[in-house]
Amino acid sequence: MTEILVLNGPNLNLLGQREPHIYGAETLADVESSCRALGLAELTFRQSNHEGQLVDWIQEARGRFDAIVINPGAYSHTSIAILDALSAYEGRVVEVHISNIHRREAFRHHSHVSARAEAVIAGLGTEGYRAAIRWLAG
Ligand code: CA2
Fold first, then answer.
1. Where does ligand 1 bind, in terms of residues with CB under 6 Å?
2. Which of 34, 96, 114, 120 has its CA 20 to 30 A from that of 83?
3. How far apart (Å, rounded) are the C-alpha atoms in residues 45 and 61?
């Protein structure tokens, strides 16, 4: 079975608790269970509010996971460190955004991570995580 690391960046631990008009009503735990319920891949879920922790997990994924599904949160727009870590990782990378970042403020329109991602999903809500897993496992 495909081994996939699902990484979530800053503030995504608040999913389902604030701003449901933008990010929906599902919590991160709900997202995790619905992804597991697909039964398509071996999944490991991690969330951190700290850039260095995300970099460490990406480095540790080398040789261990076939793919990374990452929602880097606001670090998408700022972090060369996360881009560099993903560039040193040899597996597949899919970037997910719950909201359509291109319909939002200009500062959200560019993601550094997209340069390394094989696919970018934005605006499908939390379905984006399941779509990424289906696509990677397919
Ligand atoms: O649309 C996305 O998934 C984002 O990656 C979410 C980030 C945002 O900075 C990106 O521009 C787009 C923010 C995550 C904050 O998540 C919250 C969830 C619920 C309540 C408050 C924040």
1. 11-12, 14-15, 18-19, 23, 71, 73-74, 76, 97-99, 101, 108
2. 34
3. 12
CB 24 within 8 A of CB 16: yes
Query: Tokens for 75?
Result: 């670090």
Residue 37 C-alpha from the chain's centroid: 18
Which residue is it, tokens 């990424």? 132
Q: pLDDT, tens digit, for every residue of 80-117?
A: 999 999 999 999 999 999 999 999 999 999 999 999 99
Distance CA 76, CA 112 (A): 6
At 121, which helix (H) or strand (E)? strand 119-122
Indicate if 23 belongs to the active site.
yes
The pLDDT tens digits for 109-137 are: 999 999 999 999 999 999 999 999 999 99
Phi, then psi, of 131 in degrees rounded to 5: -60, -40
